[in-house]
Prior knowledge:
Elements: H1 4-11, H2 28-41, H3 44-48, E1 65-69, E2 75-81, E3 88-91, E4 103-105, E5 110-114, E6 125-127, E7 134-136, E8 149-151, E9 156-159, E10 172-174, E11 179-182, E12 195-197, E13 202-205, E14 218-220, E15 225-228, E16 241-243, E17 248-251, E18 264-266, E19 271-274, E20 287-289, E21 294-295, E22 310-312
Parallel strand pairs: 2-4, 3-5, 4-6, 6-8, 7-9, 8-10, 9-11, 10-12, 11-13, 12-14, 13-15, 14-16, 15-17, 16-18, 17-19, 18-20, 19-21, 20-22
Antiparallel strand pairs: 1-2
Amino acid sequence: MIARRELVSTAGVMLASANFSRSRSSSSSDCxxxxxxxxxxxxxxQVLQWNTTSGPDWxxxxxxxxxxxxxxxxxxxxxxxxxxxxxxxxxxxxxRSLNNLxxxxxxxxxxxxxxxxxxxxxxxxxxxxxxxxxxPAAGLxxxxxxxxxLDLGANAFSGDLGFVQxxxxxxxxxxxxxxxxxxxxxxxxxxALSWLVLRQNALEGGLQPLANLLxxxxxxxxxxxxxxxxxPLQALQRLVKFRGYFNNFRGGxxxxxxxxxxxxLSVFDNQMEGSLEPVRDMTQMRNLYxxxxxxxxxxxxxxxxxxxxxxxx
Length: 313
């Protein structure tokens, strides 16, 4: 996955609080947005114990906040990492004015409300995982077309995946453990994806929309209502992990035979069949879960899998 700090550091030079005196203007407007949020829209002022009296640029020295100079020499908030801080409240529309914000991690907090248009389109990294957010995702994220990483896992979002359709720069997408439904057609042109986790939703249809996502290394579609064969994955030679358990996949493992660097293959509880010959050259395999299918033939195809730790048949 993409590290948050990598995304921030590539966008500009991070500055220590002592450097802000050299900027031609101040980030007081950005700090004002955070001050209002922490006192009006959430309990963050109490939980985070920010020192808001240290000057107009107080937020640039606050825990979880990083700033950088923009093209005009103005110190602007560039990163918010408030994961697991224990704050509760809403993300207000005023956050949209943080138009230099590139990384925001609000995961593992109690976010009570996210209004449409609240998030700045400048975001490259966004995590709202495990925040108790619920309801349709449509209308909340479509403007974030520069996103490279999006994590909405373990919430109660619903609707189809159309809200990510124009996010052509996405490299990692996690929407596991929600209530998304429909097929994966909106993902068809997201060719930069290397990490895709759709586990435990109500998605339907086949894998065909993923056929051209040649950069995929980690693919998890487990615990959905997927059907068809693994044939659309035949060109995904970079796959390292594939989790497709608890679906209705049919056919054999032959489409995966060129993914020779695979370390985990988990397709238990499907309707698959055929021999195990296609895994013969996957010598890096550590976890192989094949139970509750209809595979047949000899086990000598597994002889070269010397790094195998777990095997279920």
